[in-house]
Amino acid sequence: MEIKKKYTNGEVTVVWEPSKCIHSAICFRGLPQVFDPRKRPWVTLEHGKTEEIVSQVKACPSAALTYFMNAEDNQESQTSINTVVEVLKNGPLLVYGNLKVKDKDGQESIKSQTTAFCRCGASQNKPYCDGSHVTTAFQG
Questions:
Q1: 3 state SS for 55-116
Q2: CA distance 47 to 87
Q3: Among 59, 75, 100, 131, which residue carries the largest CB count within 10 Å?
Q4: pLDDT tens for each residue of 33-83
Q5: Cβ atoms of residues 68 and 97 within 8 Å
Q6: In the beta sheet, which residues pair with residue 28?
Q7: Same CATH fold, 79-135 and 5-71?
Q8: Residue 137 to residues 24, 28, 83, 110, 123, Cα–Cα distance (Å)
Q9: Domain spanning 79-135 has what CATH number?
C-alpha cells in the first residue's frame, strides 16, 4: 500500500507520496518555513501563503508533492491543458502538465503537474527519475 500524507491550510491541500520522492531538496530550499524535513510534521502550510506553496509544489521534479485547491471538487480540476517539457542540465527531463504514461508492459498511469523522466539510464524506477544521475555524475 502506497503511503499518502495530506496537509492543508484550509485553502490548499498538499499531498506527499514518499515513495515518489527523489530527495531533490527543491521543496525545502525554496520554502524552508513550510517544508522542513528536520521537523515533524515536516510540512507546515500555516507558515506560508497559498500562492507560494502552490508554486513550490509545482517545482517538485518527482511529483512526490502535489496539491489541490480545497474549493474544487477534485484534483483533476487543477490540471492544465498545456504540457511543457524542460531538460534539466545533468538531470532528468521534467514534464509539466497532464499526461498518460504507458510502460513497457502496456500498463498506463495518469500523471499531472510535474513528472521527472530519467535521462541518465541508471534509474531503478524507469522511466521515472530516482536521482541516480547524481551518483553517476551524469552529464547532459
A1: HHHHCCCCCCEEEEECCCCCHHHHCCCCCEEEECCCCCEEEECCEEEECCCCCEEEECCEEE
A2: 31
A3: 131
A4: 999 999 999 999 999 999 999 999 988 888 889 988 887 544 444 443 467
A5: no
A6: none
A7: no
A8: 15, 23, 28, 30, 13
A9: 3.40.5
19-24: which pairs have CB atoms within 8 A and are 24 or more residues apart?
Answer: 19/64, 20/62, 20/63, 20/64, 20/128, 21/62, 21/64, 22/61, 22/62, 22/64, 22/116, 22/129, 22/130, 22/131, 23/131, 24/60, 24/61, 24/62, 24/131
- Whole-number Å distance between alpha carbons of 41 and 35: 9
Core vs surface per residue 76-104: b (16+ CB within 10 A) or e: eebeeeeeeeeeeeebbbbbbbbeeeeee
Domain regions of the chain by residue span: 5-71, 79-135
**Tens-place pLDDT, residues 91-115:** 999 888 778 888 888 888 888 778 8
